[in-house]
């Protein structure tokens, strides 16, 4: 087993446990709840097998769903975000992604922020739309998406900055 595989397994397990044991208990003003487990989707190697990545994204969301008893909404949101990730990478990083020379820690800050923001907003919009599942609650869906996305993006960017090898 190589170190990349071991680090991805540990990241998967650690983020799921952190999410369900600690972060799901945070709920500011009824709208704000950080979903740090999305970090696994963001940091998964870019040049890996896409089918395996989609399966792992589904498994990640399903793991959170099992602990939260949320009926598959996290699995669906993770799967949509994982499916759209190649397009988001191409949009945010352009030619670097097309030539598979991309390392998230060495990308420009603006491109990194746009990638994280787009991924989080898409995940949260799908998640909260499935949670409410009604157009009559569109304002509530948008409020929860906006405020939770802002908090999640801040936590993710802080985590990337703290745990990146570049900053050590």
What topology does this entry show?
Blueprint: H1 3-21, H2 39-43, H3 50-68, H4 73-93, H5 95-98, H6 109-132, H7 138-163
Helix pairs in contact: 1-3, 3-4, 4-6, 6-7
Can you walk me through this structure?
- It is a single chain.
- This protein is an all-alpha fold.
- The protein has a single domain (3-167), classed as Arp2/3 complex 21 kDa subunit ARPC3 (Orthogonal Bundle), CATH 1.10.1760.
- 70% of the residues lie in helices and 0% in strands.
- Helix 4 (73-93) runs antiparallel to helix 6.
- It is globular and about 45 Å long.
- The two termini are 25 Å apart.
- The relative contact order is 0.13.
- Belongs to the MreD family.
- It is found in: Cell membrane.
- The chain crosses the membrane at residues 6-23, 35-60, 72-93, 113-140, 146-164.
- This is Rod shape-determining protein MreD.
Q: What is the structure about, briefly put?
A:
The protein is mainly α and about 170 residues long. It has seven helices and no strands.
Low-confidence stretches: none
Average residue pLDDT: 87
> What is the helix/strand order?
HHHHHHH
Distance between the termini: 25 Å
Radius of gyration: 16 Å
β-strand amount: under 5%
- CATH topology heading: Arp2/3 complex 21 kDa subunit ARPC3
CATH class value: Mainly Alpha
The SS-based structural class is mainly alpha
The biggest sheet amounts to: none
- Helicity level, as a percent range? over 70%
Total E-strand runs: 0
Q: Any idea what the shape is?
A: globular
Number of helices: 7
In total, the number of domains comes to: 1
Keywords: Cell membrane, Cell shape, Membrane, Transmembrane, Transmembrane helix
Organism: Zunongwangia endophytica
Family: Belongs to the MreD family.
Membrane topology: Multi-pass membrane protein
């Amino acid at each position: 087993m190589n170190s990349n595989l071991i680090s991805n397994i540990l990241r998967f397990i650690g983020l799921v446990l952190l999410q369900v044991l600690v972060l799901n208990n945070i709920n500011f003003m009824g709208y704000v709840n950080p979903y740090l487990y999305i970090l696994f989707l963001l940091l998964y190697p870019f040049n890996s097998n896409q089918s395996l990545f989609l399966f792992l994204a589904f498994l990640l969301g399903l793991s959170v769903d099992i602990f939260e008893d949320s009926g598959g909404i996290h699995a669906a949101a993770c799967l949509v975000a994982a499916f759209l990730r190649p397009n988001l990478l191409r949009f945010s990083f352009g030619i670097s992604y097309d030539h598979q020379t991309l390392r998230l820690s060495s990308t420009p800050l603006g491109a990194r922020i746009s990638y994280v923001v787009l991924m989080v907003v898409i995940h949260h919009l799908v998640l909260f739309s499935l949670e409410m599942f009604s157009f009559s609650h569109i304002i509530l869906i948008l409020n929860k998406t906006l405020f939770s996305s802002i908090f999640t993006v801040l936590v993710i960017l802080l985590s990337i900055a703290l745990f990146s090898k570049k900053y050590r």
